[in-house]
Amino acid sequence: xxxxxxxxxxxxxxxxxxxxxxxxxxxxxxxxxxxxxxxxxxxxxxxxxxxxxxxxxxxxxxxxxxxxxxxxxxxxxxxxxxxxxxxxxxxxxxxxxxxxxxxxxxxxxxxxxxxxxxxxxxxxxxxxxx
Length: 130
Prior knowledge:
By secondary structure, the protein is mainly β. The chain has one domain (2-128): Sandwich (Immunoglobulin-like), CATH 2.60.40. A hairpin with a 2-residue loop joins strand 8 (106-114) and strand 9 (117-128). It is built from no helices and 9 strands.
């Protein structure tokens, strides 16, 4: 399995297999803590090889630098279908996040696990407006 996309953005949607991503970002700016980011999306695109076809447990988490979860983990089961003539195929996941509260400035981590195994991360920086 390869991660092709793992990002936060203002908007994401899957339109018939086309992943649309608008306003990709890795930083949130706030004047004081705690702060609430009103709305964002997590966009994920994963490529699986033919041997990996079938059901997989996907888990997305956002944690602070101490490992404390900012949101409840997002867990779902995905079915990776493989066309007969294909060597690989992709799945796309879009998660809408409303009212994400952060308590401190610093670096956060967006983590992806497949079948209980950590597969990748991307950072989220929460910075103070001066």
